Amino acid sequence: xxxxxxxxxxxxxxxxxxxxxxxxxxxxxxxxxxxxxxxxxxxxxxxxxxxxxxxxxxxxxxxxxxxxxxxxxxxxxxxxxxxxxxxxxxxxxxxxxxxxxxxxxxxxxxxxxxxxxxxxxxxxxxxxxxxxxxxxxxxxxxxxxxxxxxxxxxxxxxxxxxxxxxxxxxxxxxxxxxxxxxxxxxxxxxxxxxxxxxxxxxxxxxxxxxxxxxxxxxxxxxxxxxxxxxxxxxxxxxxxxxxxxxxxxxxxxxxxxxxxxxxxxxxxxxxxxxxxxxxxxxxxxxxxxxxxxxxxxxxxxxxxxxxxxxxxxxxxxxxxxxxxxxxxxxxxxxxxxxxxxxxxxxxxxxxxxxxxxxxxxxxxxxxxxxxxxxxxxxxxxxxxxxxxxxxxxxxxxxxxxxxxxxxxxxxxxxxxxxxxxxxxxxxxxxxxxxxxxxxxxxxxxxxxxxxxxxxxxxxxxxxxxxxxxxxxxxxxxxxxxxxxxxxxxxxxxxxxxxxxxxxxxxxxxxxxxxxxxxxxxxxxxxxxxxxxxxxxxxxxxxxxxxxxxxxxxxxxxxxxxxxxxxxxxxxxxxxxxxxxxxxxxxxxxxxxxxxxxxxxx
Amino acid sequence: xxxxxxxxxxxxxxxxxxxxxxxxxxxxxxxxxxxxxxxxxxxxxxxxxxxxxxxxxxxxxxxxxxxxxxxxxxxxxxxxxxxxxxxxxxx
Lengths: 601, 91
Ligand code: SF4
Known about the structure:
Strand order of the largest sheet of chain A: 2-1-6-3-4-5
Strand content of chain B: 15-25%
CATH class of the largest domain in chain A: Alpha Beta
Oligomer: heterodimer
Shape of chain B: globular
CATH topology of chain B: Ubiquitin-like (UB roll)
Largest sheet of chain B: 5 strands, mixed
CATH superfamily of chain B: Beta-grasp domain
Distance between the termini of chain B: 31 Å
Mean pLDDT of chain A: 97
Radius of gyration of chain A: 22 Å
Bound molecules: iron/sulfur cluster
């Protein structure tokens, strides 16, 4: 067996039984691994209509065939389950070293079923796999949990765990690994909490073998050279992190501001990557085998918000910044640290606070509702305080801990939630960047940028430039990015590797590693297959074309200031074209011949 | 006109923005002028080794990316807002 380890751990938490199974190689070949293969197994094993927080849900921690090899930027794994936030399929991707360690221990994935009667954690050391009592660790925040699990197992163990938010079933809870890396989106931390599973500690001393060493060596060298030679992959991300985007998006008028009430934030520069590098950056940080190092080890000395940790990346700096009308970078970083410690998704946490501020400023919620907390836009102290309250579900934080849709809906105004499929949208205003709006609306996990990052082309011009304001060619662009990313995520590679390499190089890496020939077309088709499988799962779960929408605000209220002033999203013109190009009917249902062509019929 | 500089370019220009008077009539001519003014440490981010304009530097005239129109030939006028980013990205 090469690239894949060929082994899966299955843990029934209800009975406490642990079994080891061979990987289904036919499925692995077609769905690659990580996100794709776990989605296929979820599709086969889990009824999409179950309650996501019930024992019937299953939770997959899945690495890809490239994860843990010596190719560049291949340290990723996915957490896959039914999402309690969206009701759709969840696959949250994280870096660090947890995924590679799982492979070195000899496994492609761990599947959790049922619910433990009392808190437990899973300890994996190569062949030895055991469930252990986590009663003494339950209640602890992520850093302490990580330290305690290492102390009880091995000081070199890689730990993935939940914090207080996941324990309290916050629908925006993340799974954190190695303290600062997050499988953040879609509430996967709540599913872990619902199973009484506090964490996983893993140590592996094995290796990942490759099928065609010569071909893999060549492909890895080629990919490394291309990433290093690229101005972005080679130097830009390391120097400024992803937060460098703040000024770019603001300058093109597409930095969502004050809960998407505008697309321009006059003082955004104070929160950008340049300010972060000048004032707070200790050093860049990379995941396993990363040659880019976009991660930020940072420090805040301002006593009000003092701390040290990881982040923020662009989405977090924007969410706690412009989207809340805040330009205090120290407060933004502090909010990011708190999310890491409590196990909260930064995007959904920040934008839920922005939504609460919008509701408050419009008189829909009052001091009586908030427990006396003035939730005005721009109030940095309050923003930081709300993160704590959300993580522990205290006071008004309890109402906010299930995301902006449930919050706004509880007060009769769901239109204030800037979400798609009830998951909060990230940091690109679809009124100013047309293609990303189509992606948000059609993304299989709801509001999300990383599964169809058209910003690379529409704003950055990488590898080619398309006008962000037009809709021409955007459905095709969105589909290409969605398929490419579905395949890429499934290998275990990092999305940022695409600032340097593309489908050709990834197919070559996968072929060399597995010893199975994947052409670029095969690779892209695997992405298409994974996308359609996820779509089918969602349709069975009850979602429909009625969920392929954007908030009304983005369709009807033009951006008020900045370079994209006057623009609205033209989603409704793009969506029918997208459906047709996808081989779906007018209701967004894949046609039988499409499914047949992908082997999904 | 007002020119704003970002990322690495600020290390060279030492200012985040400046008011600038030029006779240059196009974005390309302005960039040539700025490259002469700030020298190779500036030019390496916005020009390719052959001296032509980089396709992945982001240059905005009044918030519009010049690559979406006539690129180096984009006309500029005294009241314009110009933003110049070296090739950077995120996600
Ligand atoms: S580029 Fe960033 S996210 Fe990707 S592997 Fe490197 S550090 Fe991790």
